[in-house]
Specification:
The protein is an alpha+beta fold and 493 residues long. It has helices spanning 13-23, 26-77, 140-144, 194-246, 261-310, 317-341, 353-362, 384-401, 449-452, 457-467; strands at residues 94-98, 103-106, 110-114, 147-149, 155-163, 166-179, 183-192, 349-352, 370-375, 379-382, 405-413, 416-423, 471-476, 482-489.
Amino acid sequence: MKLPPVSHHRPTGGVARRTLRVFSSVRARATLGATLVVAVALVAAGAAVLLSLRANLADQASGQAESAARGVASRLAANVAYGDLDLDDDDHPVQVVDGDGRLVAATEDLQAISGTGVADIKPRSAATPPKGDDDDDESEGDALEAGDISEDAADVTSGSATIDGETQDYRFAAVEVNVEKKDDLTVYAGASLAAQQSAVSTALTSMLIGFPLLLAVIALVTWLVTRRALRPVDAIRSEMAAITASEDLARRVPEPDTHDEIARLATTTNETLAALQSSVERQRRFVADASHELRSPIASLRTQLEVGAAHPELLDVDGAVEDTVRLQELAADLLLLARLDAGEKPGGGHVDLAALAREELSQRTRDRVDVRMDLKNAEVNGSRNQLARVLGNLVNNAQRHAHSHVTVATRAEGTWAVLEVSDDGNGVPPSERDRIFERFVRLDDARTRDDGGAGLGLAIARDVAARHGGTLTVEEAPGGGALFELRVPAATR
């Protein structure tokens, strides 16, 4: 069996895709849009120019026709005989029609005419009406006054006429004149539209040649200008592609010195990259610290269980329970932080901070120092569980640092609901008052992990405060020690 010949032609799919990509670019759309707008404007302007030119030339021809008609009418009004009218002007074909619609005089070389309402080209009677009685001694001035030409504007129509075998379009003007002994007459005189047609044709030809050239120049200029304007965008795109491929968030896109929207886009992009880099680094530190914090209780718990399995009499049940509780609390803190980082909203529950504090503090049985309460109604909208976690974390932190007592107070202050937790310990140095809210931060490096916690409580408390539209700050307490103040917008009913 003979196999068909192998084609060596390259597939056209790549060319089609490249063509589609070119025409789908901003540069191509901008060039096409600018060209279309200019084309529409040019067509509209060209049409307006042509119509104006045609109308002006038509009005000029109408004026010439009316002038010629009134010239013939004035001679008729002067009682000039039809045969003496001198109607041999080929540029202005003339017809003189009486009141009965009969042609009484016309241009000698006229061969055909239309548009005047009278198709005759030769007078029906060769007889010339008399100027007057033979014994009439009227003066020349009386003869000039014998006719009356209409002062109304002439009726203008369009038509055509053939003179000496040449047919042209004309504008015809009709002027009425009343002549004694000749009855009412109408003079039709035409003016050629050849000049109008030639001018319009020349203008149209110029537009048909010039417009495409002008559009090509505009398209080329727009393409070049757009390419130059979008060159920084292409540089930004290339750098972003390189950053995506290398996963190096330390790189930045180039910022042009144009101080325009593209420069602001580059600045915003670099700010976004910086925030993303900071977030990724913070996440990496968080994962590393969380892994380290989880490893300690898990290792301790495993050791105790292995010893208990080999020597049941040596099993430290209390230690195993403490490690399990610490592990459970750490896992709960990590899960809450993950939900907060994911943007979990607190909800719209109605919470009274005084009632919440009274209920939560009544359930604490293993506090190291006494907890004093100064509770006044302060209602907020939010998540009861998250606000209870804030209270618990603040009280736990105060318990670790207090010497003799911890004070919890709530109150309403204008549009804010305030929760304060203070202790009589050593306080927080001013230089460290922002750093203590970072995750896994503990100021007392000598404190053991078992006594000092994982360093997540204050970070969680500040994140919850921010999710509720409030703030969490630390100041020095009036009697010494640290004063943590939570401010949340008061509830609106």
